């Protein structure tokens, strides 16, 4: 067995294999090497035995020895899997620890058929790399290549990916390269991995001395998930915190190497960025000066939807009052405009020649729920009728829709912030820090859930028995209907922004989708929407028809009567149907 580690500024490095220390030999570029037979190993620096920064397996936690893992030993059954591209996708974000009561990969596999029945194409899994403790969101990971053992370890994750592929589901994995968690982060003991800091701690050294090896640490980790775990894409957390002043940004380098791997594997590979920059350069083609990533999250659209549905205007929401129509049209609301939250101008306009699928649209995600003081979902405060309207806007837009687990049935469970650091001082620091943060916004200490109480995790775990009871059952049927409609009518998944129109008249919003109109009444009173005159005046033309509605919408001549807080998807008179039309109500 050959062991290697990058430790460029050390004069002596040993590897401890199955309890016995062995000298390592210095090689080129600051790498040390040793050939020793064994299973459990750690690198000894200045007398301390530390886990491998590139560990693939941490069976006993992030502070203990790493274990040798053989990727070739797993028996895959997805040999015929050819992957799924992002255009036309419907993404479902889930957290393994709270998706089921088991909190494991194998437990999640038991619920995959629900996602298939719902119409999901891509499962986005929140971070699964090793972090200290049993329960956590995953963003405090410290060993980026080792799968969290309580979830099922590396074999468990492979079983999950294999099972997804067997059902036609692509897998996207959330990865965090902008910081490490506060417990078990030993990278700085090995070499100059860090430079500067960001909101969450020290940032990576991506452009300073010795940064070539740090960049390879990031890129090799990403390629490993895609190649060795058969993952179909990565969601890149908070890329605005990756400070890189080099001529070729690390994100561009990553995109280039992932494209090469995609060609070698013969299946599409997807890179989705979370970014606070409001800059479409991330997803623009490299030939046009962009980085060439596949897509990025669109928080502006979430904020505009949230304000329109809930009426909340605190924090970063004030700018988004009345902003929904323009944000739907232009992708970003802040596109070189003044941001009152940031106290400066922010963002840049999006070239409408970019396809809409490069931007993810969502009513909820882990951040926008979990970073609220009580982790309350939108369904806890917004009437179901308005929620249905929001779902219709997201799922009938030209953007790539994403749901957060349980959203599709208006789950009653909150999704709260939680952690389980074994160190009592760190646990108390997390607890008091969380409460102080929300105290500044007027929340009482007793109102904020204790993040290190196991009951917080339990409260945040989905209750699957809800699916069979109303109103959850009716909400689920509505989501199924919307996703099925998006799939059967190409107008609804058409990503061309120059063919997408948004009209508003008072509380009524109309999405123009080819020969379809998505009518959305956010008002408290019924509304009448006049449809455009048909271009076809021939005899025997088809009348306008409601394909799907959340209320008792009625077509009367060239008008549609739309109940309060409801939507209707209407096929215009004279337009050519793209599939067999169907009607449903909830």
From TrEMBL:
<dbReference type="InterPro" id="IPR006047">
    <property type="entry name" value="GH13_cat_dom"/>
</dbReference>
<comment type="pathway">
    <text>Glycan biosynthesis; trehalose biosynthesis.</text>
</comment>
<protein>
    <recommendedName>
        <fullName>Malto-oligosyltrehalose trehalohydrolase</fullName>
        <ecNumber>3.2.1.141</ecNumber>
    </recommendedName>
</protein>
<keyword id="KW-0378">Hydrolase</keyword>
<feature type="active site" description="Nucleophile">
    <location>
        <position position="237"/>
    </location>
</feature>
<dbReference type="InterPro" id="IPR013783">
    <property type="entry name" value="Ig-like_fold"/>
</dbReference>
<dbReference type="InterPro" id="IPR012768">
    <property type="entry name" value="Trehalose_TreZ"/>
</dbReference>
<dbReference type="InterPro" id="IPR014756">
    <property type="entry name" value="Ig_E-set"/>
</dbReference>
<dbReference type="Pfam" id="PF00128">
    <property type="entry name" value="Alpha-amylase"/>
</dbReference>
<keyword id="KW-0326">Glycosidase</keyword>
<feature type="binding site">
    <location>
        <begin position="235"/>
        <end position="240"/>
    </location>
    <ligand>
        <name>substrate</name>
    </ligand>
</feature>
<feature type="domain" description="Glycosyl hydrolase family 13 catalytic">
    <location>
        <begin position="93"/>
        <end position="440"/>
    </location>
</feature>
<feature type="binding site">
    <location>
        <begin position="299"/>
        <end position="303"/>
    </location>
    <ligand>
        <name>substrate</name>
    </ligand>
</feature>
<dbReference type="InterPro" id="IPR017853">
    <property type="entry name" value="GH"/>
</dbReference>
<feature type="active site" description="Proton donor">
    <location>
        <position position="274"/>
    </location>
</feature>
<feature type="binding site">
    <location>
        <begin position="366"/>
        <end position="371"/>
    </location>
    <ligand>
        <name>substrate</name>
    </ligand>
</feature>
<dbReference type="InterPro" id="IPR044901">
    <property type="entry name" value="Trehalose_TreZ_E-set_sf"/>
</dbReference>
<dbReference type="GO" id="GO:0005737">
    <property type="term" value="C:cytoplasm"/>
</dbReference>
<keyword id="KW-0119">Carbohydrate metabolism</keyword>
<dbReference type="GO" id="GO:0033942">
    <property type="term" value="F:4-alpha-D-(1-&gt;4)-alpha-D-glucanotrehalose trehalohydrolase activity"/>
</dbReference>
<comment type="similarity">
    <text>Belongs to the glycosyl hydrolase 13 family.</text>
</comment>
<feature type="site" description="Transition state stabilizer">
    <location>
        <position position="367"/>
    </location>
</feature>
<keyword id="KW-0963">Cytoplasm</keyword>
<dbReference type="GO" id="GO:0005992">
    <property type="term" value="P:trehalose biosynthetic process"/>
</dbReference>
